[in-house]
Write a structure and sequence with these properties.
The protein is built from nine helices and 16 strands. By secondary structure, the protein is of the alpha/beta class. The protein has a six-stranded mixed beta sheet with strand order 1-2-6-3-7-15, with helices on both faces. The protein has a four-stranded antiparallel beta sheet with strand order 10-11-9-12, covered by helices on one side.
Length: 367
């Protein structure tokens, strides 16, 4: 038996930790995921997947295990900028992406490779550019692949929690130019118009807006570059289900006396119910490990939003790791949680083998 697998067919603990450490040691900030993609194609192939890199840089690995449903496990390759030293310490593994989201993706790879009882097709995908406004990797998967029978998105939920939904996101850019003038001239300056744009957005969202609640919108001023003659403001608005994005944009434009307001990206909120088959499968795995599952709603946005816009299928988000460490200078994952995450996903995959296969899916996912 290969050192990659135990005698029962599951991935060894040593291999699983080594895989994640290798992934962390390869920098993969958004738009620079190529080295990690190349490494994962080799790793997936060694684990028995048929693997390749698609036209936009996504890694796709497929394992066929007889007739049955197609289950996709999708995480992202990219991280925010900044390299952190990769080191183990006190049962933790530190490094950029340990939580967001190389830990969840590595857990998915190990679980899919070790789910020897699953009958059907398993597709593991590592997408590019999730940390960017346009989510180009997930958009390409949505456009080029047959929708699977079930989807698990890999983000840090905590090993004993499942994410049912995310707020949507609206990304805006306001640009304005004004004639050069003396600072004491009462005519509006570009910098003042930029600040007025932000203030108008906050006013339109109302006094209850904020990032602390799933049912309320929340805004962030992500970029401000302004002087007396030119200004650029980038704004990100997280929106709850059924929020009227078009009306917000229309009213904000109406309040701006000059300049251009452009929509950079817009994705709707998404939410599934407690009875969703993927939610039930993952919670079954958590209970098998003798924990009480926690069902959560996130005020951020993920590739689950992008895929849910087109794929009306069972889905949920799951992955080991503490999401409060996303993008942090001390980003790390507890190795015990990582191992539990692999076990939960392995059980969930086996549970999903019972799903009915939609007639249009019987030929599986395109590769």
């Amino acid at each position: 038996m290969s050192r990659r697998f135990t005698t029962t067919g599951s991935v060894t603990e040593t291999y699983a930790v080594g895989l994640l450490r290798n992934m962390l040691e390869i920098p993969s900030a958004s738009y620079h995921e190529g080295d990690l993609a190349d490494y994962l194609v080799g790793a997936l192939t060694d684990l028995g997947f048929r693997a390749h890199i698609d036209k936009v840089g996504n890694v796709v690995g497929v394992i066929e295990r007889g007739d049955g449903p197609t289950v996709m496990l999708l995480g992202h390759l990219d991280t925010v900028p900044g390299v952190l030293p990769v080191r183990p310490m006190d049962g933790r593994l530190y490094g950029r992406g340990a939580v967001d989201a190389k830990g969840p993706l590595a857990a998915m790879i190990c679980a899919a490779a070790g789910a020897v009882d699953f009958r059907g097709r398993l597709v593991v995908v590592g997408v590019v550019e999730e940390e960017t406004p346009r989510s180009r990797g997930a958009m390409a998967i949505r456009a080029t692949h047959e929708r699977p029978d079930a989807l698990i998105v890999g983000e840090p939920s905590g090993w004993s929690s499942v994410v049912l939904g995310y707020k949507g996101k609206l990304d805006l850019r306001y640009t304005v130019r004004c004639p050069a003038t003396h600072p004491s001239n009462p005519a509006p300056k570009a910098s003042e118009l930029a600040v007025a744009c932000w203030n108008a957005l906050v006013d339109l969202l109302g006094p209850d807006a904020g990032h602390g609640r799933f049912d309320q919108p929340g805004a962030t001023l992500t970029r401000l570059d302004a002087d007396l003659t030119t200004a650029t403001v980038e704004l990100s608005v997280r929106v709850p289900p059924a929020f009227d994005v078009d009306a917000l944009v229309r009213e904000l434009r109406h309040r701006l006396p000059a300049g251009d307001l452009d929509v950079l990206n817009s994705v709707a909120a998404c939410r599934v119910g407690r009875a969703d088959p993927v939610v039930r499968a993952v919670t079954s795995g958590i209970r098998r490990l003798r924990a009480q599952p926690r069902l959560v709603l996130k005020t951020a946005t993920s590739d689950m939003n992008t895929l849910a816009e087109s794929w009306d299928i069972p889905m949920a988000t799951y992955g080991p790791g503490d999401s409060t460490l996303d993008h942090a200078d001390d980003e790390h994952i507890m190795l015990s949680d990582y191992r539990r995450g692999i076990d939960v996903l392995t059980i969930a995959i086996s549970e999903l083998a019972r799903l009915p296969v939609h007639p249009r899916h019987r030929k599986g996912v395109s590769t």
